[in-house]
Amino acid sequence: MTTITTAPATAARKPLYTSLFVQVLAGLLLGIALGVATPDFAASLKILSDAFLKLISMIVAPIVFCVVVHGIAGAGDLKKVGRVGVKALVYFEVMTTVALVVGLLLAFLAGPGHGMNIDVSTLDAKALATYSGNAQKLKGEGIGSFLLNIVPTTSFDALARNDVLQVLFFAILFGVSLALVGGEKGERISTFIEAVSTVLFRMMGLIVRLAPLGVLGAVAYTVGKYGVGSLKQLVSLVVLFYVSVAIFVLGVLGAVMALAGINILKFLSYLREELTIVLATASSDAVLPQIMRKLVRLGVKDSVVGLVIPTGYSFNLDAFSIYLTLAVVFIAQATNTPLSIGDLLLVLGVSLITSKGAHGVPGSAIVILAATLNAVPSIPAIGLVLVLSVDWFIGMARALGNLIGNCVATVVIAAWEGDLDHRTAARVLDGKEVVDVTAG
């Protein structure tokens, strides 16, 4: 993996304004101010956010390919790779199930949709036109088609379309084959892929310096278009989702991290720059390389990081899972639709399947939610219109929760495997080393 520059905590600090965290925070505050003062101009700044995310998207697939191949080939022992992979999948399924249940319970306890009394005949079906094609396609696929779709038509096609799940599948096959080849030939290819990975990480480091502009554009557009107080009717759903994610992160993931010997609050503080970028841009792709390098610097073996993080991007969407069950119950409550125990169990079962691979689906939240609702005929799918207007705000916490869940999964699985250096982790989290993730 790429060398990470560290310095003693006693070394001279850079000026505060050079900190990416401070720059991102400044971009966020400026975006809010512009959105309130000049809504039309602020909405036009969305191009900054779109351009930033497009730059990130440009190299996500090749980075995933390189880190997974290098992680598998570098591990040497394929039995270990298989063991880590199985443990990761088991962990992902357990956490996803817990997340789905958390969303379900909190939705029933808080009842965010009660009292809305929405007449579904008054909802505008045109608002869902953009997502209907993908939703119908997903609905008709089934488990067999879903599994078949993991296999790319060609490796280049998967890379070109940025289909992370297909890229991951090809990378695992390539990495395993590379490890089996071994010898001088295998070493040459492994060295070449590591060199390419180093260049890609450096490129991502350059792009991430533009994060403050991306955050400025995203926040300005959101406030300018929707206004600060224009979403009062759905504010309870947004607030409940943020509370749900906080409970899951601090309660569930906090307890899991405690078992691994890590304090969740110190861990979140360590990742604060990356989490700020994700919260503002509603995209976790933007911080993939920095997160991976920070986890390695924390003391997690690079082979574990290279396998778990990219896999988790498709299979471990904790906050997304919370949103699925929370939104389903919200729509049922808002439209006065009664839900039986059978309906709820069906929602849970379908959500476990539909949430996988959602990272690569355009308009994923609405599309996957539509596919989930189609499995429960009693709930009117047109109710999705109710959550469209707040999807961006919910998406911010959704991306944040998903990323935290994947980072926690990596640390926990590394501890489970004995691939976590606890002394290094304690030293880094206590601030005794300064990590510069933008350095090459």
How does this model look, in words?
Helix content is 73%, strand content 2%. It is mainly alpha-helical and 440 residues long. The protein has a single domain (5-436), classed as Sodium:dicarboxylate symporter (Proton glutamate symport protein), CATH 1.10.3860. It has a two-stranded antiparallel ribbon. It is globular, with a radius of gyration of 22 Å. The chain starts with a strand and ends with a strand. Mean pLDDT is 77; it is low at 1-12.
Helix fraction, binned, reads: over 70%
User: What name does CATH use for the topology?
Assistant: Proton glutamate symport protein
Structural class designation: mainly alpha
Report on the biggest sheet.
2 strands, antiparallel
Report low-confidence residues grouped into runs of 5 or more. Answer: 1-12
What is the overall shape? Answer: globular
The count of domains is: 1
Per DSSP, what share of the residues sits in E-state strands of 2 or more residues? under 5%
Instruction: Please state the average pLDDT score.
Output: 77
* CATH homology-level superfamily: Sodium:dicarboxylate symporter
Q: What is the CATH level 1 assignment?
A: Mainly Alpha
Can you count the helices? 20
